[in-house]
Prior knowledge:
By secondary structure, the chain is mostly beta strands. Helix content is 14%, strand content 41%.
Amino acid sequence: MSTLFPLGPSLTGTLVAADIDAAVAAYCDYLYASVLEDGVISETQACLWGKPDLVGSRIVTLQSATGFPWVRIVGNPEVIPARPFLELGWLALEVLVSDVDALAERLVDSPFEIYRPPADLDVSDAIRAMQVIGPAGEVLYLTQVNAAVEPFDIPQARSEVDRLFIPVSSCLRRDEGLAIYNKLGANKSWSFDTRITSVNKAHGLDLALKHPVATVQLSGQSMVEIDQLGVAKSRPPTAGKLPAGIAMVSFVFDNIDNLGLKPISPPQRMEGRLYGGQRVAVCRGAGGELIELIEAAS
């Protein structure tokens, strides 16, 4: 039985790509996605995000074979390319897959760069994962979960590439990152120090260097990972648009009236396949990342 908190599950990671057609094709051709919704950003949506210059920009939402709308892509031909692992904010999307080794073979000569090949994780031999960098500079942790992993409440894949279940953020101070999710009602967490080999490699650090990390349990067999990265830099300023790579993550939230954080702009009721006519609010995380909260259907 899944844990019940006001926040969760995690739903959708929003990417910003210079070539939206190429990015959409990459996810559909190699990661088993299909188009759920293809449209443009409205004035209401742009204001909700605090990014007025996005009005009229194309936005495509993709879903898995199991119907999870796990990735959304915004087009901006002028966007400054993302720098994987080097910047504050949303660092990666951890996505459930059924067979990570087979997927690694599928991604050879694809638009996805295999940054670290499949390997069993130190935390549990029931988890096997690889890391890839996508066409928008986004980092994906593609993870195969073979059995329950105590004390965490995490799922197993129901299709080749199923759903987002752990978005990973980076900030300068772990406690500040935790405070954000505590205010959103996710009060079950674990803090520890661990190697983040991919980050160490990207920054030219000793590969054995440990960083303060926290994991926060959400509803719907989801979590958030918070990585304290004192070496990371703020993303380039984008004024009225979103930065490249992973700019936002969307979550279900039980009741917008009980929101413990100040939203960027007043909540709005939003139509569309992802929002379903529910109220939506957007807040900012400790690393500057955008957190989109979609009210649960009553």
